[in-house]
């Protein structure tokens, strides 16, 4: 009997151990899978919010975006576009409604992934920088400073711009070409293939360096100013603009507008040089792209410094700000709409993390 009791107790113990191990394995398995799926779903929703925000904001200002590029690259000795109002009227008269939105499909194909990567990269870079900053200072309650936000925004801008740069190049070329251009790009993939075959793979990254340099103050200042201005409004509550920790949509639009104005003004000359380097050497755009005033042929640039030098020598310092007016009119609502759209879509999708978080 004693022997049977011992065997029985051992059997019960073994069964209990097996059941416990099974339960632990199940819990461990569920504990790993649930957060993993939740994290992936959250990332997808965050990327979707950024992409939608980019597409909505860029489509809203597509005519001004096209006019800006045409002003940036037009030959100063054969002027077609002479200001914002005249330029828009000329496009409408010569090309109609389709002309106003030419290149917008390509632009959205570029800006949707670009915006998705940019917003997501900013959030991830902000979390990483904040963690490192708290480790260095030993203050677990420390918050991001404007300078650290500038760094996070710069990282996000460089990553997003580099990932989608070939799309930006062909978007610019499709936007610039007209019905009178000797040869036509029939679409995004045709343009990518044509540039790759006729000009080589390096041509897909023409103007990349000034883009990298320009994106640091542009995107960096956009995020830094937007977030810092929101924080200041929440803490000080001037003119009753903030209720508790929430800002109205109109107030957020105002923050985005201020951020966009500061960022684009600082980085604009680099944007002009980037666009001209992208068009340089494109033989089928001779009637549109800047020339030397004698042959009316597109100018070749050996690099960023050479592009600056030739632009200033042929057209003066003012050429570095060609298209600034339509860009200013465009960038203010564009940046504002992008930020607000992003936060609204994240609210709709139920993403808990906000940019400030």
TrEMBL record:
It comes from the Eukaryota. It is a multi-pass membrane protein. GO terms for cellular component: mitochondrial inner membrane. Keywords: Membrane, Mitochondrion, Mitochondrion inner membrane, Repeat, Transmembrane, Transmembrane helix, Transport. GO terms for biological process: transmembrane transport. Coiled coil: none annotated. The keyword Hydrolase does not apply. Solcar repeats lie at residues 41-128, 144-232, 247-348. It is found in: Mitochondrion inner membrane. Belongs to the mitochondrial carrier (TC 2.A.29) family. This is Mitochondrial adenine nucleotide transporter ADNT1. It comes from Solanum lycopersicum (Tomato). The gene is LOC101263234.
């Amino acid at each position: 009997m004693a022997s049977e009791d011992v065997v029985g107790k051992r059997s019960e113990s073994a069964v209990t151990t097996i059941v416990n191990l099974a339960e632990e394995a199940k819990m461990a398995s569920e504990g790993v899978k649930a957060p993993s799926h939740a994290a992936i779903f959250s990332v997808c929703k965050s990327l979707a919010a950024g992409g939608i925000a980019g597409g909505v904001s860029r489509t809203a200002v597509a005519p001004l975006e096209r006019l800006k590029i045409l002003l940036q690259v037009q030959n100063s000795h054969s002027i077609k576009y002479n200001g914002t109002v005249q330029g828009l009227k000329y496009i409408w008269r010569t090309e109609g409604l389709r002309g106003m939105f030419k290149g917008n499909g390509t632009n959205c194909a570029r800006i949707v992934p670009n915006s998705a990567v940019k917003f997501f990269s900013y959030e991830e870079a902000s979390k990483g920088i904040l963690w490192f900053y708290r480790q260095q200072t030993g203050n677990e309650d420390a918050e991001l400073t404007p300078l650290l936000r500038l760094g996070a925004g710069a990282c996000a801008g460089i990553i997003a711009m580099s990932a989608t740069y070939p799309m930006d190049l062909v978007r610019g070329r499709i936007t610039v070409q007209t019905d009178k251009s000797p040869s036509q790009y029939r679409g995004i993939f045709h343009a990518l293939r044509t540039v790759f075959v006729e000009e080589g793979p390096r041509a897909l990254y023409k103007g990349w360096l000034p883009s990298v340099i320009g994106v640091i103050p542009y995107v960096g200042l956009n995020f830094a100013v937007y977030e810092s201005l929101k924080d200041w409004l929440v803490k000080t509550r001037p003119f009753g603009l903030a209720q508790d920790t929430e800002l109205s949509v109109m107030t957020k639009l105002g923050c985005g507008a201020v951020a966009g104005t500061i960022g684009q003004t600082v980085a604009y000359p680099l944007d002009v040089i980037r666009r001209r380097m992208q068009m340089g050497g494109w033989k089928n755009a001779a009637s549109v792209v800047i020339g030397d005033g004698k042959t009316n042929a597109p100018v070749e640039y050996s690099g960023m410094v050479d592009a600056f030098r030739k632009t200033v020598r042929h057209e003066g310092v003012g050429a570095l700000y060609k298209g600034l007016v339509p860009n200013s009119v465009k960038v203010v609502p564009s940046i504002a709409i992008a930020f607000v759209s992003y936060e609204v879509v994240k609210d709709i999708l139920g993403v808990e993390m906000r940019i400030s978080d």
